[in-house]
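Researcher: Quick test of sequence recovery. Tokens follow.
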């Protein structure tokens, strides 16, 4: 995103489409999980209501469930939807893949950067 190497987003919980701690992407990643964001209660509720419950653990998939403060690689389109709804979570730019720019505006991501 910033022209440097992509920094890890989260090791605990382990995130990324490839579960490599980074918001890497590839042809298999149809959802483009490229925005590293810090979860908020408002965003988690928004995502649950939008049909993607990120709070409930799914041990059968190795998913612990997220809580406010956790960092996670979000789908760029979901982050953009949350922005439109006024509940976009903060973004970690150094850990956000430049592929996010195909969906999100850099100024929007920067204005939500921590």
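Model:
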């Amino acid at each position: 995103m910033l022209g440097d190497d992509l920094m890890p987003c989260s090791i605990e919980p382990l995130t990324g489409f490839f579960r490599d701690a980074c918001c890497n992407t590839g042809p298999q990643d149809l959802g483009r999980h490229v925005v590293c964001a810090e979860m908020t209660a408002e965003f988690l509720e928004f995502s649950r209501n939008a049909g993607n419950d990120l709070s409930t653990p799914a041990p059968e998939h190795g998913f612990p469930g997220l809580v406010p403060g956790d960092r996670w690689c979000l789908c760029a389109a979901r982050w953009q939807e949350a922005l439109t709804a006024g509940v976009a979570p903060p973004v970690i730019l150094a850990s956000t893949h430049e592929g996010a720019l195909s969906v999100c505006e850099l100024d929007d991501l920067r204005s939500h950067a921590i």
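The chain is about 20% helix and 10% strand.
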